[in-house]
Each structure stands twice: as C-alpha cells, then as structure tokens.
Design brief:
The protein is an alpha/beta fold. The N and C termini lie close together (6 Å). Bound molecules: N-carbamoyl-L-aspartate. N-carbamoyl-L-aspartate (NCD) binds next to α2 and α6.
Length: 311
C-alpha cells in the first residue's frame, strides 16, 4: 500500500515519484464522484478549509472550493481586496489569526516564492497547500497536467514534453519539470532568451532549445504558457506580434509534433498570442480536460493532507 506522510503540499520537488503516483491514482478514483448525479461524499465532513488567495485566480480557487465542497468540508474564501492585508497586516499575523479559528487546511496563493514554507513553519497543526507561490511552484497544476497526459498516453514515462513561453516566471513550468522528470519524461524548453532562466537544465532531464521548432519536433505534449507580464519588472520582448511569430502555436507548427500529440495550457489563455484559436479549440487541445481533472486532483490533495489512506 502506498502512503502519503506529508502534512503539507508545497512543491512537487518535495514529493517522491511514489507519492506523486499516489496523488494521481487517488485523483483517478475521485473522478467517479464528479460524474455522479449527487456529487458529494462525506470524507472531509467536519473539516474546515480556508482558501487564502493573495493573487487573482479563476480556475484554481474555484476548483479548490468545489473540491472541498464535494468532500463535504466547510470552505471559506478570503481574497486580498477584502482581507486585512490591505490594512497592513503581515502574512504571519493573518495566519495566526486564521489559525485561532481552527482551520484544518489552508490553501494559499501568494506572490512571494517560498512563503508557504514560512507559513507551514508557523502553523504546525494545520495543513498548507500551495495554490501557486510567485514563480516557484504550482503543484496542483503540475499534478492535473500529469493526469491529463496519463489519460492520453496511459503512462508518464518516456514522453517528450515541450514547454514553450515565459519559463523564468512560470511556476507551472517548474512544477511540471519537477514532476515529469521524476516520472521519467524528457522536457524540452523554448522561449525568448530573456524569459529562459539560466541553469534550468540542472532541474532534471531538461533541454533548452534554440528555437520553438526544435522543442515541439516529435513532441507528445506541447504545453504553452502565458507571458507573466505581472511578474516581469520590465518588458522582455519587443511586441506581442513578434512574440507569436517565433513562439506562438498555430496549426502549421503543431504539425511538427507527433500526429497524436496533445496541446495543453494552464490558462488564462491570450488567444492569438501564445496560441491561435484554431489550436485552442482544435481536436488536439486538452485545455478544458485539464480544468476538469483539476477538481479531482485537488480532491486527492485535500484527502491526503487530511490523513487519508488508499487501499
Ligand atoms: C497559472 C498560474 O496562476 O500560475 N494559472 C493557473 O493557475 N491556471 C498560469 C498563469 O497565470 O499564466
């Protein structure tokens, strides 16, 4: 029996291959609940989950909230504009005040990389799940991406995964690199040199390609990323038209990938910049499947940090 011993899930870097497999297998099981007429099980009844989102989110926050509710937990959402962060309260004080209300799990998104480790150190009796910390990691996205790839290929080893775009500022890229290289897949990165972090090859089985063509040639998965303008201190590209000419995915360059390749994007998509609408809405796109899988993956994460075991 595989078991999950962590109280918190902050980064896929901290998990073993077996722990990642367990989370994905649990998510596969959770999908059955999501297809029922009455989508609710009592698994986390009596547990309180706080969703603390200091950065904007559509998919991730809604998905964590739905996941908690489907497992019968009580979920509460806090957003920055309505919290005391705007009145100058520190993260640490906010956390201690929330803790006084005895939550079992805090799901947090924060602009500061590593802030979750700090929070987890302060809150030994509450689980912390990272819903995205700066440009560091986004473990639930990495897991739902891997589940979506497993759905298509039946395995997560030996895949060629191209990740194209703003790698420097992408927590999605980092979580996928950490997870997929542990599972035995190869990552090929492409993007403007101003958006490629030096030394990224050292994270695992990672190749930095000079052109997008090189990265997507014979790829099984083409993962496109948004330019994280909100994290870039200055403009790192001449203009979006030029960007999409060199790093945009369209029906023509997608032909370079394997014929059965899938196209992924974590959202939000800037149509016409990183991907043409033909590709977003095309047969190879798995964008909405990723969102669907997100709920099951988050149910699995909540279940395991709450101490669940899988027979
Ligand atoms: C990503 C994020 O916030 O890191 N979105 C998401 O969670 N689905 C990627 C992005 O914002 O571009």
């Amino acid at each position: 029996m595989k078991s999950f011993k962590h109280k918190d899930i902050i980064a896929l870097r901290d998990l073993t291959k077996e722990e990642i497999e367990l989370l994905i297998e649990t998510a596969e099981g959770m999908r059955e609940i999501n297809s029922r007429d009455i989508k609710k099980v009592p698994t986390l009844r009596g547990k309180t989950i706080i969703n603390l989102f200091y950065e904007s989110s559509t998919r991730t926050r809604t998905s964590f909230e739905i996941a908690g509710k489907r497992l019968s937990a009580d979920t509460v959402n806090i957003t920055p504009s309505s919290s005391s962060a705007t009145k100058g309260e520190t993260l640490s004080d906010t956390a201690l005040n929330l803790l006084a209300m005895k939550p079992d799990i805090i799901v947090m998104r924060h602009a500061v990389s590593g802030s979750h480790y700090y929070l987890a150190g302060k809150l030994p009796n509450c689980s912390i799940i990272n819903a995205g910390d700066g440009a560091h990691e986004h473990p639930s996205q990495g897991l739902l991406d891997m589940l979506t790839m497993k759905d298509r290929f039946g395995r997560l080893d030996g895949l060629k995964v191209a990740i194209v775009g703003d790698i420097t500022h992408s927590r999605v890229a980092r979580s996928n690199i950490q997870g997929l290289t542990k599972m035995g897949s190869s990552i090929y990165l492409a993007g403007p040199p101003t958006m490629m972090p030096p030394g990224v090859e050292r994270l695992g089985n990672v190749t930095v390609c000079g052109t997008m063509k090189e990265a997507i040639q014979d790829a099984d998965v083409v993962m496109m990323l948004r330019i994280q303008q909100e994290r870039q201190g200055k403009t790192l590209m001449p203009n979006t038209r030029e960007y999409s000419r060199y790093f945009g995915l369209n029906p023509d360059n997608l032909k370079l990938a394997k014929p059965d390749a899938i196209v992924m994007h974590p959202g939000p998509i800037n149509r016409g910049v990183e991907m043409s609408s033909y590709v977003v809405d095309g047969d190879q796109s798995r964008v909405l499947k990723q969102v669907e899988n997100g709920v099951a993956v988050r149910m699995a994460m909540l279940y395991h940090v709450a101490g669940g075991e899988l027979e």
